[in-house]
Specification:
The protein has four helices and four strands. The chain is an alpha+beta fold. The protein has a single domain, classed as Beta Polymerase, domain 2, CATH 3.30.460.10. Helix 2 links the parallel strand 2 and strand 3.
């Protein structure tokens, strides 16, 4: 299944999950770097509680594989949110502008936090090496 077919199928899935604001395909598939064994990386933003297990099951059904990762982008790391914003393919937004708002928020946060995160990472790695 190519990305366009998947996007159409996932849009239908997303529409049946009340509270879902945004669904994005990210990772190698959205960057057009997938190989035959690549999984499907999906990120979502929800206004209300969404059952990630049910979302995973529905996505796996329409994609024809259980090799699907689903992540709540509101709870994900700053780097994952930024990568999903920068390279992800929006397949569903409950309201016009939801994807744009996510991209802007994730990008602004990463621009503010990247230097601090990288310094902390370097310090941890130095401690582990030392």
């Amino acid at each position: 299944m190519d990305l366009d077919e998947a996007a159409a199928a996932l849009e239908g899935v997303a529409a049946h999950h009340a509270g879902l604001c945004l669904l994005v395909v990210h990772g190698s598939r959205s960057r057009h770097q997938a190989h035959p064994g690549s999984d499907w990386d999906l990120g979502y933003v929800a206004a209300d509680r969404v059952d990630p297990g049910a979302l995973h099951a529905d996505a796996a059904r329409v994609l024809g594989t259980d090799d699907v990762d689903v992540v709540d982008l509101a709870r994900a790391s700053a780097l994952l949110r930024f990568c999903a914003a920068a390279h992800g393919r929006c397949v569903f937004e409950a309201a016009p502008g939801a994807h744009e708002a996510f991209v802007l928020a994730a990008t602004l946060f990463w621009c503010d936090a990247e230097a601090v995160i990288r310094r902390a990472q370097a310090a941890v790695l130095a401690d582990l090496s030392g």
